[in-house]
Amino acid sequence: MASKLSWASRAASYLRVSVFHRGFTSVVKDLKYAKSHEWVKVEGNSATIGITDRAQDRLGDVVFVELPEVGAEVTQGSSFGAVESLKAATHVYSPVSGKIVQVNEELSASPGLINAFPYEKGWIMKVEMSNANEVNKLMDSDHYSKIL
Predict the structure, then answer these.
(1) Per-residue pLDDT tens over the stretch 83-92
(2) Bridge partners, 103 (sequence order)
């Protein structure tokens, strides 16, 4: 029996961006990484968050992204949304605590941006951090590369 996709997945699959799957995973030097494969770009008290190249590659073609609500509070390690692909669905966890100040609305129409540009156009949310010291608990690019 064929696996059933949710209505949102079927609809979003028509909007996805097709990407070429590479045999390697890219890791950006100036970012911080969580063991659950989320990345963080810190600029002052602001953190931009997305899923890593490794995570998107493992998921395959992303067809739906559940975005969090602007204004909601997130805590480090808590789930704030989900990413669904043709192969699987997974929760996304916040690597830092704080208030969500912006979400990437482009992902609603083009969830495949996560596959094509995981570190640029594929970001998921921006958070005003409530505890900047939490970033020290995350991995740098060298450490993250070693666990891949």
Answers:
(1) 999 999 999 9
(2) 125
